[in-house]
Amino acid sequence: MLGKKLVTAQKRGETRALCLGLGMVACSVMMYFFIGITIVPFFTKSVWTTETVCKVLKANIKDKVFCPNSKGSEDEEIFPYPCLQVWVNLTASGQEVMLYQTEDTLERNPKCSYVPDKLENSKEVKARIETIASNFKKHQTFPCYYDPGGTQTNVILSRLYPAKGLLFAFLWPTLMFTGGCLIIVLVKISQYVSVLSAWQ
């Protein structure tokens, strides 16, 4: 009687462990799919792939400009902010080009190097832009990214999705997938050993 209970409990444990492993594998596959349709296209679409050194030539704050709400929006003048323009000397080619914060900054407003968050307070925005301008004037040389193919003549300060960030995004689903497969393999080995013991 006790032996039957132990066998039943063992089977229940194996079933639960097998469900856990299959669940982990399924979740990791869903995470792979989500990363593949969200982050990977932005990473592959970016042409600013080569890192170089930029030297600040001038950092000026122009009059207030208006940030478009979204592409194709009729009401574009919704968020005025000071326009920071940073021009740098690209070490790789010696050209004078305009610097943008990220790829998204160029798409949102090609006239300004920095586009603040729309939800920020206007005073905070002005203070932040002045701080960024002063930092550029203090730190004249810094790493930046440019397009080696020459499609884009401007440069960006940082990539939205760098290679390290992409690898880090794939790390967690990979660990989950590996753990799920390991659980399934261990359950199958346990079942095989149980059947072999019972047969002997």
Produce a short descriptive summary:
The chain is an alpha+beta fold and 200 residues long. The protein has helices spanning 2-45, 103-108, 122-138, 163-199; strands at 50-66, 80-90, 96-100, 141-146, 155-156. Helix 1 runs antiparallel to helix 4 (163-199).
Low-confidence stretches: 69-77
Number of domains: 2
Principal-axes shape call:
elongated
C-alpha end-to-end distance: 20 Å
**Portion of residues within helices:** 40-55%
Arithmetic mean pLDDT: 81
Question: What can be said about the biggest beta sheet?
Answer: 5 strands, mixed, barrel
Structural class: alpha+beta
- Beta-strand portion reads 15-25%
Strand arrangement, largest sheet? 1-2-3-5-4
Number of strands: 5
**For the CA atoms, what is the radius of gyration?**
27 Å
Number of helices: 4
Order of helices and strands: HEEEHHEEH
Family: Belongs to the KCNMB (TC 8.A.14.1) family. KCNMB1 subfamily.
GO biological process, one term: detection of calcium ion
Keywords: Glycoprotein, Ion channel, Ion transport, Membrane, Transmembrane, Transmembrane helix, Transport
Pfam families: CaKB
Describe the structure.
- With 200 residues, the chain is an alpha+beta fold.
- It folds into 2 domains: 50-161, no CATH class; 162-199.
- 52% of the residues lie in helices and 20% in strands.
- The chain has a 5-stranded mixed beta barrel.
- A hairpin with an 8-residue loop joins strand 4 (141-146) and strand 5 (155-156).
- Helix 1 (2-45) runs antiparallel to helix 4 (163-199).
- The longest helix is centred in the N-terminal third of the chain and has 44 residues, at 2-45.
- Mean pLDDT is 81; it is low at 69-77.
